[in-house]
Write a sequence for this structure.
């Protein structure tokens, strides 16, 4: 494959070495509190085929449930070096990988607490604007009380639930459309 422009797409073209190869996939440097986890997010088109040239961004609270953001002024610890933001391109198998910590629960603006989750933005060919979704953790006891999940038709909630594989990696397939389409949110 020659270096230069990638094929022109709705949100492209990208230039090699700038956006396509821009990684910030290790969110949790040594010393950050919490359970270390690995994520494998696979990106699929409407027909279920892999998307090897997508870009995924993640944004999350730390293990204490606090975002590294000026609007989060709650009296909870911030971890030095943990910003809660990551970015990775999908590889030839359609997978973007992240190393991070399992996030803590955060409050819902209308009251109550949300289950631990990671916010995901999807950028891909044919997508005019970023797509926003979430990753929740299979088996988390807080899932039934999460206010966002409660708003989603029960049959579709599973599109947001990551499952741990035999190697301990949390995997979430993200489908841009079709019968297994992931739930996406207006932002």
């Amino acid at each position: 494959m020659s270096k230069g422009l990638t094929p022109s797409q709705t949100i492209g073209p990208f230039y090699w070495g700038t956006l396509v190869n821009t990684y910030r996939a290790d969110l949790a440097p040594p010393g950050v509190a919490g359970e270390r986890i690995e994520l494998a997010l696979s990106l699929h088109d409407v027909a279920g085929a892999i998307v090897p040239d997508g870009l995924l961004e993640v944004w999350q609270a730390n293990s204490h449930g606090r975002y590294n953001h000026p609007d989060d002024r709650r009296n909870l610890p911030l971890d030095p070096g943990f910003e809660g933001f990551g970015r990775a391109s999908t590889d030839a198998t359609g997978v973007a990988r992240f190393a991070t910590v399992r996030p803590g629960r955060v409050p819902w603006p209308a009251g109550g607490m949300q289950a631990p989750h990671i916010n995901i933005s999807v950028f891909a060919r044919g997508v005019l604007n970023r797509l926003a979704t979430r990753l929740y953790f299979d088996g988390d006891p807080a899932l039934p009380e999460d206010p966002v999940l409660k708003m989603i038709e029960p049959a579709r909630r599973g599109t947001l639930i990551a499952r741990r594989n035999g190697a301990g990696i949390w995997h979430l397939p993200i489908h841009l459309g079709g019968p297994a389409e992931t739930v996406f949110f207006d932002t």
